[in-house]
Design goal:
twelve-stranded mixed sheet; globular; 20 strands; 245 residues; single chain; mainly beta
């Protein structure tokens, strides 16, 4: 089941996506998805993201595999949705796309085991972990590089009925494939990561865990269009522009 948040005129509502139609959870009738604005499908209290979590990406970076998940936080203020514009901040000279699968938490999780971890997951979505790569290198930290407004792109909706363990992930930049991976290449799989994080911080409903990116990350430029497609979920598409403030 694909669940999302949509806007039609002044009305904002949650709905179920079936093909090209969206059925509101409350009320009758349906809308054509093309006539709706697709909003971010969740309003996370926090976003936990992983660094270096694909074997092939570690090889690309010539780095050893981590022995534990490497996590960092992105602020909720960075969230935008499908069709929204990624804004490149003037203080960075290189901003990269990073296509990822996002895990959406469905109920409070604290100290859960890997075996039970998926019971706490609502579903899965596409995620673009936009990163100011030059600032990441300069700072040696992630907060500034990962935290700009528009740097946490989520959508277009949440797929609740999906086996996440072997899904193809593809990133296209201006219709050219730049990343291609599969979740079977994850160093730490989703149950392991949900359990690991839940032993550090309590996960609340609508929190998002971004599972890391496959190889092929690269820079964005004004006028670009970037698309993250995940098998069984859909396509998350965003234009790119320079921030005006």
């Amino acid at each position: 089941m694909k669940l999302g948040i949509f806007k039609f005129g002044d009305r904002v509502f949650r709905g179920v996506v079936e093909g090209d139609r969206v059925y509101p959870l409350e009320g009758k009738g349906f809308y054509d998805v093309e006539e709706l604005q697709i909003l971010p499908p969740v309003r996370p209290g926090k976003i936990v993201a992983l660094a270096l979590n694909y074997k092939s990406h570690a090889a690309e970076m010539n780095k050893p595999l981590p022995t534990e998940p490497l996590i960092f936080l992105k602020p909720p203020s960075a969230v935008i949705g499908h069709g929204d514009t990624i804004l490149l901040p003037p203080m960075s000279k290189r901003v990269d796309y990073e296509g990822e699968i996002g895990v959406v938490i469905g109920k409070r999780a604290r100290g859960v085991s890997p075996k039970e971890a998926l019971e706490y997951v609502m579903g899965y979505t596409c995620f673009n972990d936009v990163t100011a790569r030059d600032l990441q290198s300069k700072d040696g930290l992630f907060a500034r590089a990962k935290g700009f407004d528009t740097f946490a792109v989520i959508g277009p909706w949440i797929e609740t009925r999906l086996d996440p363990h072997s899904l193809n992930i593809c990133t296209r930049l201006n219709n050219q494939v730049v990343q291609a991976g599969n979740t079977s290449d994850l160093i730490f799989d989703i149950p392991t990561v949900v359990s690991f994080v839940s032993h550090i911080m309590t996960l609340e409903p609508e929190d998002v865990i971004a599972m890391g990116t496959p190889p092929g990350v690269g820079p964005l430029s004004p006028g670009d269009t970037v698309e993250i497609e995940i098998e069984g979920i859909g396509k998350l598409t965003n234009p790119v522009a320079v921030r005006g403030w």
